[in-house]
Amino acid sequence: MSIHQFSAHLINGEEKSLRDYEGHVLLIVNTATKCGFAPQLKELEKLYGKYKEHKFAVLGFPCNQFGNQEPGSDEEVSERCQINFGVSFPLFKKIDVKGKEAHPLYKYLTKEKKGLLTADIKWNFTKFLIDGQGKIIKRYAPTTSPSKIEEDIKELLSCEE
Fold this sequence. Notes:
By secondary structure, this protein is of the alpha+beta class.
């Protein structure tokens, strides 16, 4: 199994197969623009800009399950991400990342890479690093700055070449 068997709806409503990302190193993140960690969106964008030509992508999954920190419609979320943080990496429609209604991708991610005390996503900006074959390499806590993940990304990108 790999993440490539899943699909999700982009924030514009278009269905996107994650199979389209075969051969790409990915950083999958549940985001929230009103969260204290929201400045990480700028760091994520910086990584995306730096490595997207090398088959790297950040996939943002907005979520409103933690403290109502991603209110509003998908259109409003997209607008906040672009205007406030300059996000150009792929954003998906708001989803649940935990509980009975969790998106199947997140059920898979949390089953395969558990957190410190539990498999559940505990807060916004939990990050999953995925290799080109769709295998989950590492899970990072919300407090882990995207810049601290850059070396792991570079290492995976060199393996993919």
